[in-house]
Amino acid sequence: MGFLIRVLVVYYLLINLITFVAYGVDKRKAIRNQWRIPELTLISMAFLGGFIGAPLGMLTFHHKTRKIKFRILIPVAVILHIILIIFIAVTVH
Fold it and tell me: How many structural domains does the chain have?
């Protein structure tokens, strides 16, 4: 596995973990009526690579699952990253 691929794997693992945790933290803060992570930040994290952590966080913590913008934009992020990963896989070989 090339250096670039290893870097991407580590990046995807970290951003997905961070995104998953962010959804959990935001849910906890919502329950406690505390300062929240902005919705734009949560959605942006999915587009920046947290395309697995975002939907898993939504389902695990039952958070933002009724919000229409999350129900539309998170799947879009998933599709875009799948396309990106396929493109990288095809062009690297």
Answer: 1
pTM over 0.90: yes
CB 36 within 8 Å of CB 64: no
Give the tokens for residue 18. 């961070």
- State the Cα–Cα distance between residues 92 and 62, nearest whole angstrom: 38
**Residues of the domain holding 77:** 3-92
Give the model confidence (pLDDT) of 38-92 as tens digits.
999 999 999 999 999 999 999 999 999 999 999 999 999 999 999 999 999 899 8
Q: What is the 3-state secondary structure (H, E, C) of the chain?
A: CCHHHHHHHHHHHHHHHHHHHHHHHHHHHHHCCCCCCCHHHHHHHHHCCCCCHHHHHHHHHCCCCCCHHHHHHHHHHHHHHHHHHHHHHHHHC
Q: Measured between alpha carbons, how far apart are the two ends of the chain, in Å?
A: 10
- Integer Cα distance of 91 and 54 in angstroms: 27
